[in-house]
């Protein structure tokens, strides 16, 4: 008789190996657009987070400004101080490269916080509307339908104006960023609510929800512990795309003068300042902040488009 040699069973895959072999990771590895977009987003986000370490100057420290450096072209020594700036300076002698890094921090913070707040509001209202139905669903969805008849930027301007009007004058500059976040979030919650409601209407009639009701689970645990995890995929896609829209909305409001205050300028504020000098020859004050905003919004939007396709089971 011959002895048979048993081969040992293969070692179980680690979580990273399972993720790397998943359809999601395969789709990412075979999408050059998603890879380039994610690299650009990571670079810009890290540059904004570490702006105090990367920026050669603190553009919002009055003690470090020299008006003699004003309107210095990119890469050209100043005629008076002989200082050279990578992307030039603005009318107050601030380094444009440093202002972009600090301004991008404000734009990213406002955009991310506004999307997070809009997602929380929309998800809660969408779950409530789908689960309870009746007059609750009718009320929430009719409010959403009425809000959709107005452009989101006009709704944000209206909310920003009302909130700023009720804020004491001495706190308006300090609260302007938070008011801006609330204004953008309240103008952007509708799409989250509609998508979550549609998905939750399907989930609430499935067997696991009926079983949870039979064992005495309450409405809130069923909504947030059972239904919510199964409707998160479209929410994440919308959140990614909404981040680009929120950044553009913040830039638009700041460009119109109703967004970030001059003491905390965002990319939109920098573009508004540069627009005033565009036709006098100082093109770099507008050009470089506008290119940064374009690269940031476009990369996030492309990443959101890829994420939508990757999480769509019909396209697999």
TrEMBL record:
Belongs to the binding-protein-dependent transport system permease family. It is a multi-pass membrane protein. The keyword Zinc does not apply. This is Stage 0 sporulation protein KC. Coiled coil: none annotated. CDD domains: TM_PBP2 (cd06261). The chain crosses the membrane at residues 33-55, 106-132, 144-163, 175-196, 227-249, 283-307. Pfam families: BPD_transp_1, OppC_N. Residues 104-304 form the ABC transmembrane type-1 domain. Its main location: membrane. GO terms for biological process: transmembrane transport. InterPro entries: BP-dependent_transpt_permease, MetI-like, MetI-like_sf, OppC_N. Keywords: Cell membrane, Membrane, Transmembrane, Transmembrane helix, Transport. GO terms for cellular component: plasma membrane. It is found in: Cell membrane. It comes from the Bacteria. Gene3D superfamilies: MetI-like (1.10.3720.10). PANTHER family: ABC TRANSPORTER PERMEASE PROTEIN, OLIGOPEPTIDE TRANSPORT SYSTEM PERMEASE PROTEIN APPC.
């Amino acid at each position: 008789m011959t002895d048979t040699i048993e081969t040992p069973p293969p070692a179980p895959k680690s979580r990273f190996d399972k993720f790397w072999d998943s359809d999601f990771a395969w789709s990412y590895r075979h999408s050059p657009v998603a890879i380039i977009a994610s690299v650009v987003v990571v670079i810009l986000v890290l540059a904004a987070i570490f702006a105090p370490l990367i920026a050669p100057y603190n553009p919002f420290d009055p003690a470090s400004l020299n008006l003699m450096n004003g309107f210095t072209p990119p890469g050209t020594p100043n005629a008076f101080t002989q200082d050279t700036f990578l992307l030039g300076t603005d009318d107050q002698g601030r380094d444009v490269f440093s202002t972009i890094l600090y301004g991008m921090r404000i734009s990213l913070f406002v955009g991310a916080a506004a999307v997070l707040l809009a997602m929380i509001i929309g998800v809660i209202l969408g779950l409530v509307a789908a689960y309870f139905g009746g007059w609750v669903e009718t009320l929430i969805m009719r409010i959403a339908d009425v809000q959709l008849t107005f452009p989101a930027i006009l709704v944000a301007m209206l909310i920003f104006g009302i909130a700023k009007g009720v804020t004491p004058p001495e706190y308006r500059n300090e609260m302007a960023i938070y008011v801006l976040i609330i204004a953008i979030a309240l103008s952007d919650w509708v799409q989250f609510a509609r998508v979550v409601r549609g998905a939750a209407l399907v989930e609430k009639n499935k067997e696991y929800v009926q079983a949870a009701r039979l064992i005495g689970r309450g409405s809130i645990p069923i909504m947030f512990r059972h239904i919510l995890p199964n409707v998160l995929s479209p929410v994440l896609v919308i959140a990614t795309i909404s981040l680009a829209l929120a950044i553009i909305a913040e830039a638009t409001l700041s460009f119109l003068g109703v967004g970030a205050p001059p003491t905390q300028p965002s990319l939109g504020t920098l573009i508004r300042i540069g627009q005033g000098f565009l036709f006098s020859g100082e093109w770099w004050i507008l050009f470089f902040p506008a290119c940064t905003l374009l690269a940031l919004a476009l990369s996030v939007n492309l990443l959101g488009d890829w994420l939508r396709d990757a999480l769509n089971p019909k396209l697999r």
